[in-house]
């Protein structure tokens, strides 16, 4: 089973990396970029076929390791 | 207009960061994780409402700055 976990900064959390990318895009001539925020994506391959169990394990992985839930949100998508 | 750019390593490119996460997940007791690969996600807000122009600009941003197309793939999603 394949899963994608997307971890993004919560609204209001400063993102200097995103701001640097925004500045670089502007200096490359891309006008009209109002904001850039960077996040992380994890593509996992899991053994087993029980989607509910996988979703529960993935949420637990996010809480324990993949995301810092103080400042980050996470989203889990499962594709078979 | 909002856009999400997802940048992932091409198949075959070594991902030591993903391997480290996979090892950490296993040592935290998550069995059944067959593989982890890490990528990046960029959430952009763009001025303007022309979706075709935005898509073209985003592809150009990926080619020039956001992705290293030698080793990375990118995907662009636009949501209004």
From TrEMBL, chains A, B:
Pathway, per record: Purine metabolism; IMP biosynthesis via de novo pathway; 5-amino-1-(5-phospho-D-ribosyl)imidazole from N(2)-formyl-N(1)-(5-phospho-D-ribosyl)glycinamide: step 1/2
Catalytic activity: N(2)-formyl-N(1)-(5-phospho-beta-D-ribosyl)glycinamide + L-glutamine + ATP + H2O = 2-formamido-N(1)-(5-O-phospho-beta-D-ribosyl)acetamidine + L-glutamate + ADP + phosphate + H(+)
Subcellular location: Cytoplasm
Keywords: ATP-binding, Cytoplasm, Ligase, Nucleotide-binding, Purine biosynthesis
Key word Ligase present: yes
Protein origin, superkingdom: Bacteria
The protein's Enzyme Commission number: 6.3.5.3
GO molecular function: phosphoribosylformylglycinamidine synthase activity
Function field: Part of the phosphoribosylformylglycinamidine synthase complex involved in the purines biosynthetic pathway. Catalyzes the ATP-dependent conversion of formylglycinamide ribonucleotide (FGAR) and glutamine to yield formylglycinamidine ribonucleotide (FGAM) and glutamate. The FGAM synthase complex is composed of three subunits. PurQ produces an ammonia molecule by converting glutamine to glutamate. PurL transfers the ammonia molecule to FGAR to form FGAM in an ATP-dependent manner.
Subunit structure: Part of the FGAM synthase complex composed of 1 PurL, 1 PurQ and 2 PurS subunits.
Family: Belongs to the PurS family.
Name the UniProt record assigns to this protein: Phosphoribosylformylglycinamidine synthase subunit PurS
Organism: Devosia oryziradicis
Gene: purS
């Amino acid at each position: 089973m394949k899963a994608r976990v997307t971890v993004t900064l919560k609204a209001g959390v400063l993102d200097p990396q995103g701001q640097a990318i925004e500045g670089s895009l502007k200096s490359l001539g891309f006008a009209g970029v109002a904001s850039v925020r960077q996040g992380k994506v994890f593509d996992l391959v899991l053994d087993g076929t029980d989607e509910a169990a996988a979703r529960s394990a993935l949420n637990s992985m996010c809480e324990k390791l993949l995301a810092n839930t103080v400042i980050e949100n996470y989203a889990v998508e499962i594709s078979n």
